[in-house]
Write a structure and sequence with these properties.
single chain, 276 residues, alpha/beta, nine-stranded parallel beta sheet, two-stranded antiparallel ribbon, 12 helices, globular
Length: 276
């Protein structure tokens, strides 16, 4: 069985504070995650002028721009994230929401790329990412099969390795909306590795995804689910993250190979109960 690649999605749950970001990285390391992931935006490219000028009450002001700019890390912060992750021995990468952000991320020589569900239909961004030919996780929330087909075919055309991630883009997601059997449907349709990006509360849906063969898991993480932020309620705190990773590694071992064998312990019981 392929070892499940566990991604701790910091996203924007750092609330623009590098200290919080580093605490979340440390939590992911302690939990045994394989990588942490962030989100990168060029505000004036990712959003319209009208949207940025619209009202939004936040700790940083009363417009969408105030909030978006406060949450956005720049080069100084990403340099520190890169340094801290190298020191802690964990991989990091980010999902870009515009081409300039993707170009910005190249300076860090990251191993993986990520297409967020929101960006799945952004053809020019898909081309920019696929042209790098780095292994890319493609989230499929809010998307039709035709839209997923388009993204998958584009990555195949560019010869870029990828992994499709089943996802439901509600925050938090109701367990009954998970539709985990899509993991099987997507694997049959695309004949590739299929992961799961979850926004539910708790662990049971995610661990169930692993039993269905999800090869990667992505969950938003937070220091406190009551903190300010649109993603906090759909995130898991560090202690729950530790339990989740432990669950995933236990399931990996329990799934076995599918080959019928007698364990040494079972052979001893056989001798007692069958006499041979």
């Amino acid at each position: 069985m392929v070892k499940v690649f566990v991604i701790a999605e910091v996203g924007i749950n750092h609330n623009g504070n590098i200290k919080i970001a580093k605490e979340l990285i440390d939590g992911a390391v302690q939990a045994g995650c394989d990588a942490v992931k962030f989100q990168k935006r060029t505000i004036d490219l990712a959003y319209s002028k009208e949207y940025l000028e619209s009202f939004r009450q936040s700790p940083w002001g009363t417009t969408q721009r105030d909030q978006k700019e406060a949450l956005e890390f720049g080069e100084e912060e990403y340099d520190e994230i890169d340094r801290h992750c190298r020191e802690k021995g964990i991989e990091w990468f980010a999902s870009a929401w515009d081409i300039e952000s993707q170009k910005f991320l190249r300076q860090y020589n990251l191993k993986h790329n990520k297409i967020s569900s929101a960006m799945l239909t952004n053809k020019e961004l898909l081309k920019e990412v696929a042209a790098e030919k780095k292994y890319t996780f493609i989230s499929t929330g809010m998307s039709t099969l035709d839209e997923i087909d388009f993204a998958v075919n584009l990555f195949k055309e560019y010869g870029c390795p990828f992994e499709v991630m089943h996802c439901n883009s509600t925050y938090p997601m109701k367990n009954e909306d998970a539709n985990l059997k899509m993991i099987l449907s997507l694997r049959e349709r695309y004949n590739c590795r299929i992961g799961y990006s979850g926004h539910e509360v708790g662990r049971v849906v995610t661990t169930s995804a692993v039993t269905l063969g999800a090869t990667s898991i992505e969950r938003h993480i937070t220091l406190d689910r009551t903190m300010y932020g649109s993603d906090q309620a759909a995130s898991i705190e560090i202690l729950e993250l530790q339990r989740l990773v432990t669950d995933i590694r236990t399931i990996e071992k329990a799934l076995g190979t599918g080959e019928k064998i007698l364990t040494e312990a079972e052979k001893e019981v056989r001798k007692k109960l069958r006499g041979k």
